[in-house]
Amino acid sequence: MTIYNHLAYLDNASTTPVPQHVVDVIDHYYHCEKVNVHRGMYKLANVVTQQYEGVRQKVAKFINADDKNQIVFTSGTTDSLNMVAFGYALSHLQPDDEMIVSVLEHHSNLVPWQQVAAKSGGRLRIVKVDGKGHLDQKQLTKMINRHTKVVSLAMVSNVLGTYTDMRPIAQKAHEIGAVLVVDAAQAVAHMPIDVQKMNVDFVAFSGHKMFGPTGVGVLYGKSELLEEMNPVRFGGEMIDQVTSRSATFQPAPLKFEAGTPNIAGVLGLGAAIDYINGIGYPSIMGTDHLLVERLMSELNGLKFVTIYGSPSADDHKAVVSFNVEGIHAHDIATILDSVGVAVRAGHHCAHPLMDFLRTESVVRASVSFQNTIKEIDQLVVGIQKAREIFK
Amino acid sequence: MSDIRQLYQRIIIDHANYPHHYGKLACPDFVRTCRNPDCGDTITVFVSIDTDCFNELNFVGDGCAISQASASIMTDTLIDKTVAEATQLIQEFQKLLLGQHITTGDLGDSVVFGKLKQFPTRVRCGALAWHAVSDVIEEWGKRSGQQINFSK
Prior knowledge:
The structure holds 2 protein chains of 2 kinds. Chain A is built from 13 helices and 15 strands. By secondary structure, chain A is an alpha/beta fold. Chain A folds into 2 domains: 20-278, Type I PLP-dependent aspartate aminotransferase-like (Major domain) (Aspartate Aminotransferase, domain 2); 281-389, Aspartate Aminotransferase, domain 1, CATH 3.90.1150. In chain A, helix 6 (166-175) links the parallel strand 5 and strand 6 (179-183). Chain B has a 3-stranded antiparallel beta sheet with strand order 1-2-3, covered by helices on one side. Chain B has one domain: Sufe protein. Chain: A (Alpha-Beta Complex). The two termini of chain B are 29 Å apart. In chain B, helix 2 (10-17) crosses helix 3 (65-78), helix 3 packs across helix 5 and helix 4 (83-98) runs antiparallel to helix 5 (123-143). Chain B is of the alpha+beta class. Chain A: Its cofactor is pyridoxal 5'-phosphate. Chain A: Belongs to the class-V pyridoxal-phosphate-dependent aminotransferase family. Csd subfamily.
């Protein structure tokens, strides 16, 4: 695992460390097999292509997609969501059509839809969350109507840690012919994703938040939707036939993977999936919960700390955001750094949620199963130190 | 690891908790808001310049102790200075943040931010209010037909 010089790394929602196996796979590719995929008549090109396509199969199995061609490799969640926004939604939206996101979305699941709304003349509607940070299901039910074409929601909030069950929402969206897009970036390292069970239409996530490398991600789409979806990038690898005036494209997923892909990243993603499978989600979720429970009970014991979202540890999927009375989040983060604890402080790419919470910024501690109770306790020591300094 | 109290010195905490010249001015000649998009810190400065002297300088803002204390101490440093003096002090403060040698002793308590160079992620917090005033001076220059540009 990546070593951070004894830093208690509690910024896993930002990006997770990588295990040695992932580094080894990437290293092996660059040292011994650095050839391109989907071309080249030599054997090694075929070997690497098989490995690359093998990861596609592995991802499909990992999220229970029934066909590996439903898996598009992207550069990350942001890229995946932009593909759906500009490749699918833009061509399906008429003026007066509507899209729905929630107030707790990361900017990556908000700004692309704003752009699509502006370009199409459609309308972007924002569903609220309740006091505990759960999606307001009643408001959402009311909001979904015959004009709705896209509903795009985070499975787990990157600020509040709340989880949204997508199954009932998928059903409501499908009743009126809308698609449900799921931003699973914050979920994937902490809970299994089953696209068939959720019956959602698109799912986006990143490799680097699930113990994999940066610069690689996944877009899952139902086969018929990927077929309808337009590529947003054009060039080599994604074409079928090209004349000097026109081109036809490969079927999905290759039509979405223009240019030489992030081969090392994809292979590293495959290794990260092996790593997660090796530990197993039941074990991951158990450790996550123990850590969050300790963190919540410690913070709840400090009357000068405000925890955002639910007071219950069960509702925080590896993420707890808070503020300390009278001390700005950045000052807390800097002082925590001085006692060897890494957390994030700021708006967490979620300005609308900050407005909703009536704050400018929050401190966010986010765990992975590799963290320890001792590290959580170190964070509490740091908060006490901050109080001392600001006395 | 640098001692965190090098950064959060008493004077910074005091200015953060009890800022000087805090609040809007009724009729400022210049108003300028600067925002740090990374963290959301905001400083708005309100400036009255009489002939070429900083008569009044107030601020309002939201953000961390460093950004707010820096603004507060800056107001103490710059009030009653001429535009030329303020311009020089801004340049000195920029040098201070970069860890370069500074020549004047007129930065007053603002020299406390010399420690910021040990905390590179917080340098922008300390610089925010000073950026706002440098923008005001550039604007003052435009209005009075002089070209003043700060390297930013």
